[in-house]
Amino acid sequence: MSWLGQTGSPGDDYVSESGVGAGATQVDYSVKHPKSTYNTMYPYNQVINYESGHMVEHDNTPSAERIRHFHKSGTYHEQSFQGSHVQMTAGHHFNYHKGGHTKTVDQNHDEKGGGHHREVKTGDHHSEHNGDKYETVMGDHISAVKGSHCQMVGGNHYHKVYGSKTYDADTDTNYNSGKNTTFKQTDSLIHSTASHTTNCGTTYTLNAPTSITDTTKGDNTENCKNFIINGNLIVNGDTTLNGKLTVTGFATFLGGTNIGV
Question: Is 37-91 assigned to CATH 3.10.450.190?
Answer without folding.
Answer: yes
